[in-house]
């Protein structure tokens, strides 16, 4: 399994492409033009760490190119995908609403999704930054989104953010990353 990182143009958010045996999966979706060269063969789906605009803005374009792909998130994530106020795109003059809501697969906390034989993506709900936050554990990799960015305090001043939940989620994530590699939702400035 190979993991590649893309640093997107909007807020330096990160997307990741996971490849193995001619199939690909994406974690968060920003600049599609940067993702495409990394996608090998069939794109099966996109795992969302949360549904704020800087982590979802390429989804409609990606769905046009890969109509069989699915989008994995929790119930709060689906609500945000369908509401430009909740995903904050309304405030940056680029309203985003997912065009194909039937492609959303709602995940349950701790219930894995099969990626490859013997390999699952396990969603761990880590709210605080947003109710839609999901940390994804795939073997030795932990995709934390904005719930945990090493050396950065979790942002909790958005509507529906919750400082106490963010602190509890960070404790869960710190346990998850004890012996794993961290793949956060934003790249450092330097």
3D architecture notes:
This protein is of the alpha/beta class. The protein has four helices and eleven strands, in the order E-E-E-H-E-H-E-H-E-E-E-E-E-H-E. The strands form two sheets. The protein has a six-stranded mixed beta sheet with strand order 1-2-3-4-5-6. The chain has a five-stranded mixed beta sheet with strand order 7-8-9-10-11, covered by helices on one side. Helix 2 links the parallel strand 4 and strand 5. It starts with a strand and ends in a 6-residue tail after the last strand.
Structural class by SSE content? alpha/beta
Order of helices and strands: EEEHEHEHEEEEEHE
Uncertain regions spanning at least 5 consecutive residues = none
- End-to-end C-alpha gap: 28 Å
Shape: globular
Structural topology:
Elements: E1 2-7, E2 14-20, E3 23-27, H1 32-35, E4 42-47, H2 59-65, E5 70-73, H3 75-81, E6 104-106, E7 113-116, E8 119-125, E9 134-138, E10 141-145, H4 163-176, E11 181-184
Parallel strand pairs: 3-4, 4-5, 5-6, 10-11
Antiparallel strand pairs: 1-2, 2-3, 7-8, 8-9, 9-10
């Amino acid at each position: 399994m190979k993991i590649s990182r893309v640093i997107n143009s909007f807020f330096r958010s990160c997307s990741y492409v996971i490849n193995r045996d001619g199939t690909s999966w994406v974690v968060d979706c920003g600049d599609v033009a940067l993702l495409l060269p990394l996608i090998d063969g069939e794109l099966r789906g996109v795992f969302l760490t949360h549904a704020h605009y800087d982590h979802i803005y390429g989804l409609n374009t990606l769905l046009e190119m890969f109509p069989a792909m699915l989008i994995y998130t929790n119930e709060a994530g689906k609500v945000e995908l369908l509401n430009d106020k909740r995903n904050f795109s309304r405030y940056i003059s680029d309203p985003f609403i997912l065009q194909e809501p039937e492609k959303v697969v709602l995940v349950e906390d701790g219930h894995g999704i099969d990626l490859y034989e013997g390999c699952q993506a396990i969603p761990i709900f880590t709210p605080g930054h947003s109710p839609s936050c999901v940390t994804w554990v795939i073997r030795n990799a932990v995709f934390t989104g904005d719930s945990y960015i090493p050396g950065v305090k979790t942002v909790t001043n958005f509507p529906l953010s919750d400082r106490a939940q963010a602190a509890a989620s960070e404790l869960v994530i710190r346990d998850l990353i004890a012996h794993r590699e961290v793949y956060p939702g934003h790249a450092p400035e330097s």
